[in-house]
Structure formats: C-alpha cells, structure tokens
Amino acid sequence: MNNTTKSTELFNRAQESIPGGVNSPVRAFKSVGGTPVFMKKGKGAYMYDADGNQYIDYINSWGPMILGHAFGPVVEAIREKALDSTSFGAPTELEIEMAELIKSMAPNVDFVRMVSSGTEACMSALRLARGYTGRNKFIKFEGCYHGHADAFLVKAGSGVATFNIQTIPGITAGVSMDTLTSPYNDIEAVYQLAELHKGEIAAIIIEPVAGNMGCIPPLPGYIEALRTLCDEEGIVLIFDEVMTGFRLAAGGAQERLGINADLVTYGKVIGGGMPVGAFGGKREIMQHIAPLGNVYQAGTLSGNPIAMIAGYTMLKTLKDTPGIYKELEEKTAYLHKGLDEVLRQSNTPYVINRLGSMISVHFSEKPVNNFTDAAAANNTLFNQFFHHMLSNGCYLPPSAYETWFISTAITVADIDRTVEVAGEFFKNR
Ligand code: KE4
Questions:
Q1: Which residues 6+ apart lie within 8 Å of 338 measured at CB?
Q2: What's the N-to-C CA distance of the chain in angstroms?
Q3: What number of other Cβ atoms are within 10 A of residue 76's Cβ?
Q4: How far apart are CA 89 and CA 86, in angstroms?
Q5: How far is Cα 337 from Cα 111, in angstroms, rounded to an integer?
C-alpha cells in the first residue's frame, strides 16, 4: 500500500478553502471513495504524488496530455512565449496561425473561434445554432457531457452521472424545458423525438464517440442516421469533439467516422494542457458569430498567447509526426488485449469498449451501448478495482463513467505492469 499521508493532510487543508477540496468534482474520489491523491509532478507517462508515489497515468488530465506530461517542445514554447507577456487582449498573428493549423487538420471547418474551455465551446455552439435557426430546443443524449452550462446539465454524463445527480439545483425549468434528451445509440427514439418537436429543434449535439459514461462507440449507422435526420429537418448537427478531437485522428471523429458535422467543438488536446476550447464549422453558420454576425460570444483570454503556443505546438507535433496515431492506437490495443486475457481467466463478467485510444472496462454481463447499460454494470466492483490499481501505481479515472486516456509516452513495459496488477485483482475472483 502506498503511503499517502501528505495527500491526506493536503485534502484536509484544501477542504477549508475549496468546496469539496477540489476545483472540479470528479477529482474528489466521491464515487470511488477514499482520499484523492494530490499530484506534485508529471513526466512522460508518469505522475508523482505529494508523497512521492509514482503512477502510470491513464487520465492524462482527462485527455490533454496525449504526448505525455511535461512534453519538452510544449514546455519550452510556453517558457519562451511568456517572456513577451502572457496576454494582450488584442489580436495576434499566433491566433491566425492556430486557426489555420486547425483548419488544415479538421475537415469541414471554414471558421474557428477560440475560447477557454470545452464548456464555453459547447455553450457557444448551441447559442450559435439557436441564433442561426431561430429555434429554441435541442437534443442531447443521456450520459453525454458537454460541460457545465445550464442547458447541458440534464441527464448528463461524467461527474453528473458519477454523483447520480438527477436534477441540478439552479437549472431553471425555463432552461431545461428546451433540453430534449434521448438514449445514445437509439435512432428510433431520436427520430420520434424530432417528429414530436418538428420545426422546433435548433441542434442535435452528440459526443460522436461517447467518453462520459465510459467509452461508448456509436453503433454502425447511428451517426450516419443523425446526419440524415439533421439534413431532412434543417437541424444543426454539432459534434462535441472536446474529447475525440485531435485524439481519434488528426481530423478527430469527423475524419475517423467519415461524417461531417455542421459545427464541431474542441477542448483538451487543443490546448496542450492550457485552458483552450474552440468551436468551428461551415462559414454559412459561423458567420453569424459576433462581430461578423449578431450571435454574441466573447472572452478576455480567448486566443491567449500562452494557451495558443501550447496548443499550436501540441497540434503541430500531432500533425507532423508520422504514425503517431497508429502508435497511440497500437498501445491501446495492446492494453485491451492484456486486460481481456486476465479478465477472461476470471469469473468476472466484463465488457471492454474501445475506439482508437479511448477505452473503458465495464463489469457488465451484457454489451454497454448506452447510459442505462453503463449504470447497470457492477460499478461497486469498479470502485474496488480502481483502488487496487491506484495502490499499485496505476491511476485510472476515479469513476466508472469515464473513458481511460492513453498517451504516446506510455511504454509496453508500463502496459505489461498495468495488466499484471489488474491480473492480481481478478485472479482471486
Ligand atoms: P471543460 O469545460 O471541462 O474543458 O470541457 C467540458 C467537456 C465538454 N465535452 C466533453 C465531451 C467533455 O468530455 C468535457 C469535459 N470532460 C470531463 C471528463 N470527462 C472533464 C473533467 C472534469 O470535469 O474535471
């Protein structure tokens, strides 16, 4: 067992000044129980906590650290750029270069606007879709998470699912009445909902590969059917690629699935660990964003030079390094194979969901294709598994409703170690 005395002390102290001792709820270990470990340093595939324990990192800051912690070129770029001031609040050439780089990687993006989080990206895209169509309602999917803007906190995933929050205080009836929800991977249900609200729906927003109820890939034909529905009904299809963007491929899920959205949102990887989000898409829609159009959206630190140089360096590396996505995928497939082998030898019912480098383990006897399936899994067992892995130096996301994130920095030896530790947990079951 790791000595985590310092983390315990820090958590007690943190709770005196920060609600729940954390600046984002999923970090609090509420669903898995126990005391969160406080991190002090990260390098490559590893994090080191306040007590000096080393962990193989399968969160990677919930996606951004796709090249590993303290990736040299990003660190150096930040260090150098900071000498020229950290923010201007005026346009810079670097923002143009960032927008041009994004357009060279992401298909179907004519215009892109930088913001400072995935939440901001998704809320802005929804406002734009409403402004563009003149319609109020939108459809989201149970278990999908699009950040914490009011409209999205209805049957959301990630921390909302983790804490099993059914209705969130502060979200008014006026807001939630325009949020329609449908089960993920059920095309009949969404067609019926669209028929019921014909002419009222501005947008359908979806995680094209869900990652906030564990990893749940779309069933064959599902996203294609949403594309058809939106074309038929004049609904704006928004791909929330905050998690999948620049992770599943250079062009994200649009490239991977071969389907174009009308608007795409980004976060996480796009900032290289700095606070960055973005939304973009077809000129016909994006031209309604202020100051070009009347759909207002703004941000003091949007396009901030430090965030931009971090994101630019990260994306440029992903774009220019041959085979980097193949490497990411092969490492995740190797992890998948190893976990499958140890779980198959146990008596534990399980399902491993994976697409690209997004993967999750569900202790379920049946396929996990939507939130209901994910919630019906043996998540108590997941919590025990989480702590076994943590105390043996493998840091998984502290919730069964999260996908695991792989970085290129992880080695085969790290993965072998992870599988060995997992095997120790399952062999007595
Ligand atoms: P942020 O506002 O946290 O940057 O992005 C919100 C968001 C939007 N869309 C998707 C698909 C997302 O996954 C997220 C954020 N993801 C969670 C983890 N599942 C962030 C972790 C946290 O809340 O601390």
A1: 415, 416, 418, 419, 422
A2: 20
A3: 12
A4: 10
A5: 40
What DSSP string runs through 168-213? -TT--HHHHTTEEEE-TT-HHHHHHHHHHTTTTEEEEEE-SSB-SS
Mean pLDDT of 128-153: 97
pLDDT computed for residue 25 by the predictor: 96
- The secondary element (H helix, E strand) that includes residue 115 is strand 111-115
The whole-number average pLDDT for the span 337-363 is 97
Q: Kindly report the number of other CB atoms within 10 A of residue 370's CB atom.
A: 21
How big is the CA angle at 125 (ends 122 and 129), to the nearest 5 degrees? Answer: 140
What is the rounded distance in angstroms from the CA atom of residue 32 to the CA atom of residue 30?
6
- Using CB atoms within 10 Å of the CB of residue 51, give its burial: 0 to 12 exposed, 13 to 18 middle, 19+ buried: middle
**pLDDT tens digits for range 291-349:** 999 999 999 999 999 999 999 999 999 999 999 999 999 999 999 999 999 999 999 99
Nearest CA owner, ligand 1 atom 21: 62
Q: What tokens appear for 74 in the block? A: 């990003």
Taking the C-alpha atoms of residue 221 and residue 47, their distance in angstroms, rounded to an integer, is: 39
**Residue where the block lists tokens 């943590």:** 390
Ligand 1 pocket: which of 29, 65, 242 to mutate (most atoms <8 Å of CB)?
Answer: 242
What the block records as the tokens of 327 is 């490497």
Who lines ligand 1 at CB under 6 A? 24, 26, 62, 117-119, 122, 145-147, 158-159, 207, 211-212, 240, 242-243, 267, 277, 402
Q: Mark whether 222 is an active-site residue.
A: no
- Quote the tokens at residue 382: 């997941």
Q: CA 152 to CA 118: how far, in whole Å?
A: 12
Is 48 among the catalytic positions? no
The domains found in the chain, sorted by start residue, are 5-70+322-427 (3.90.1150.10), 72-320 (3.40.640.10)
Residue nearest to atom 15 of ligand 1 (CA): 147
Asked if residues 7 and 35 have their Cβ atoms less than 8 Å apart, the reply is: yes
Helices (H), 41-186: 72-82, 93-105, 118-133, 158-162, 173-176
Which amino acid, residue 45? A
Q: How far is CA 414 from the centre of its chain?
A: 23
How much is the pLDDT for 166?
Answer: 67
